[in-house]
Amino acid sequence: MQKGNIGVSTENIFPIIKKYLYSDHEIFLRELISNAVDASQKLKTLASVGEFKGELGDMTIRVSLDEKKKTITISDRGVGMTAEEIEKYINQLAFSGANEFLEKYKKDAHAIIGHFGLGFYSSFMVSKKVDIITRSFREDAQAVKWSCDGNTEYTIEEIKKEDRGTDIVLHIDDENQSFVDKNEISRLLKKYCRFLPVEIAFGKETEWKDGKEVETDKDNVVNEVNPLWTQKPADLKDEDYKNFYRELYPMAEDPLFNIHLNVDYPFNLTGVLYFPKIKNNIEIQKNKIQLYCNQVYVTDSVEGIVPEFLTLLHGVLDSPDIPLNVSRSYLQSDSNVKKISSHITKKVADRLEEIFKSDRKTFEEKWDDLKLFIEYGMLTDEKFYDRAAKFALLKNTEGKCFTFEEYKDIIKTNQTDKDDNLVYLYSTNKDDQFTFIEAAKNKGYDVLLMDGHFDSHFINHLEQKFEKGRFVRVDSDVVEKLVPKEEQNELKLTPEQRENLTTVFSSQIPQVGKTHFLVTFEALGENDTPVMITQQEFMRRMKEMSALQGGGGMFYGEMPDSYNLVVNGNHPLVSRISETVENELGGKLKTINGRISSLDARKSELEAAKKDKKEEEVPQAEKEELEDVDKKISEQKGKKETLLTDYASGSKLVSQLIDLALLSNNMLKGEALNKFVKRSIDLI
């Protein structure tokens, strides 16, 4: 028996493996099986070039579990190793500057294993002792057994082993007994090894016999050696892609489309990406793309490898040019990874454009599901925006779809304002904003439906991209002002009538949550709505965007909702209310207005007298008189407001018009809605 020391210039290798890789300790099985796959494929290659002339036979890699002995064994029939090869590949970790290596990478768990060929040593993350029982494929090779119990000392001895290949026996330590479990090993094999290119068997298949589950003689092969993405697209049908998707995501709905990637220059990349169905009202799920390196599972956290917006996709990417175990920061700075990311973006855009051109009908039918991906991509990736602008769609409230250029041509005649800007009218809810949509249509306008997850951001983005174009929500103003033209109606109400009606209407608006209403007057047609509610475009859009950003937009998010109660000053019902005010309160209002006018005149005289004087030069009597005048003006205005409010309180017509406006905006609720119903019955 030979004894020796593993060739590292420090004894810290094992504590570092155990401590710094603890969060990833389950990858030991992946690493050891990957080594077994490599050994098996090397033998196949040697056989193909005539350097191995024996029978390959059964190349299955076997994983076995001994719960009594607390061991896990990985066995292959690959090239095996001689004692000299063990010395070279296992014992000599004496790469240059081992101390520097350990110091540099001990804080980065992902960089230690795989990147520096330490895959085998991952076994010590879970083992108190590891045995290698191996025999080289070479003729007359001597089988050997290597053992190490987690320090730098090892033993190696000659043994008898009839067959070529390697058995790695892990004696699991006390801290990791959870791995000595059939279900846990099955889970790890499914996660990391389900698509490896050499068959891997774990135990035997079972069947139901005489009311119980019994083992058969057939190996339980856990992997698919020729997964869909390794096959030629020409040999595959749509159903093959759907079946593979169901295998990857058993609980998901069928996907919308798939993209089969097959690149061999300037880097190697294969894979299949799927566009899943995502509902706007549920949280977007990421981490659904599985990343492989030569069919070895690496991760499902692919940020940095694929563009941000494509993390919404599902599927598989496989590239030998992506290192197995490196940090996120390394991936994001790696030139190959950047090329791959850029190429995937191009392939996705090309595929979507191809579907759009070849089968626009299907593309439009699936637009509501595709919209989320495409808008997210256009918002976050400039190159994708440029490509997607050819096939991105705008959908109107009637369900018709248009490209950006098509829609521009449709609306330019009617929806160009006096400043030569194209006005894109849109609704965020067809039902809630029905009245406004109908008013716009009656005016000859078209209204887009922008009710998607990203639409409030997307609208802002399009305004920056579209030359001389702006988006206006259909309920943000009266229909005459949505697309401002030169000609305007004349308002029939006098300033005094408007002032009186402002008090009349504002005094009767019911309390609606944390909402502020401003009464305004517009010169609309006699057949237009008498009273309506609009919401100022800028403030509403800022609030919507702040809500999407979570805590990022607290300033706008905390402000009350601000609405305009727009009174159509030219409507007969409004004229009737104004006339009634004049008839019932005219005398009293005239007296009060006369007093206010007289007091205002005296106030102006007093303020003019003190204009060029310092505060101490103004006589005390004048100061007191000015205070008294201000007080009397407030009193008279208070009397006027009380008169108008009392009148409004008794006017069913005023309340009915306000409530109808609130109702059309879905803002009439609770007690106010109940009063409206009773009043409507009375009026009928």
UniProtKB/TrEMBL annotation:
<dbReference type="InterPro" id="IPR036890">
    <property type="entry name" value="HATPase_C_sf"/>
</dbReference>
<feature type="binding site">
    <location>
        <position position="35"/>
    </location>
    <ligand>
        <name>ATP</name>
    </ligand>
</feature>
<dbReference type="GO" id="GO:0016887">
    <property type="term" value="F:ATP hydrolysis activity"/>
</dbReference>
<keyword id="KW-0143">Chaperone</keyword>
<feature type="region of interest" description="Disordered">
    <location>
        <begin position="607"/>
        <end position="633"/>
    </location>
</feature>
<keyword id="KW-0067">ATP-binding</keyword>
<feature type="binding site">
    <location>
        <position position="166"/>
    </location>
    <ligand>
        <name>ATP</name>
    </ligand>
</feature>
<dbReference type="InterPro" id="IPR020568">
    <property type="entry name" value="Ribosomal_Su5_D2-typ_SF"/>
</dbReference>
<dbReference type="GO" id="GO:0005524">
    <property type="term" value="F:ATP binding"/>
</dbReference>
<dbReference type="Pfam" id="PF00183">
    <property type="entry name" value="HSP90"/>
</dbReference>
<dbReference type="InterPro" id="IPR019805">
    <property type="entry name" value="Heat_shock_protein_90_CS"/>
</dbReference>
<dbReference type="GO" id="GO:0051082">
    <property type="term" value="F:unfolded protein binding"/>
</dbReference>
<dbReference type="InterPro" id="IPR020575">
    <property type="entry name" value="Hsp90_N"/>
</dbReference>
<dbReference type="InterPro" id="IPR001404">
    <property type="entry name" value="Hsp90_fam"/>
</dbReference>
<dbReference type="Pfam" id="PF13589">
    <property type="entry name" value="HATPase_c_3"/>
</dbReference>
<keyword id="KW-0963">Cytoplasm</keyword>
<protein>
    <recommendedName>
        <fullName>Chaperone protein HtpG</fullName>
    </recommendedName>
</protein>
<comment type="similarity">
    <text>Belongs to the heat shock protein 90 family.</text>
</comment>
<feature type="binding site">
    <location>
        <begin position="96"/>
        <end position="97"/>
    </location>
    <ligand>
        <name>ATP</name>
    </ligand>
</feature>
<feature type="binding site">
    <location>
        <position position="81"/>
    </location>
    <ligand>
        <name>ATP</name>
    </ligand>
</feature>
<keyword id="KW-0547">Nucleotide-binding</keyword>
<feature type="binding site">
    <location>
        <position position="76"/>
    </location>
    <ligand>
        <name>ATP</name>
    </ligand>
</feature>
<dbReference type="GO" id="GO:0140662">
    <property type="term" value="F:ATP-dependent protein folding chaperone"/>
</dbReference>
<feature type="binding site">
    <location>
        <position position="328"/>
    </location>
    <ligand>
        <name>ATP</name>
    </ligand>
</feature>
<feature type="binding site">
    <location>
        <position position="31"/>
    </location>
    <ligand>
        <name>ATP</name>
    </ligand>
</feature>
<keyword id="KW-0346">Stress response</keyword>
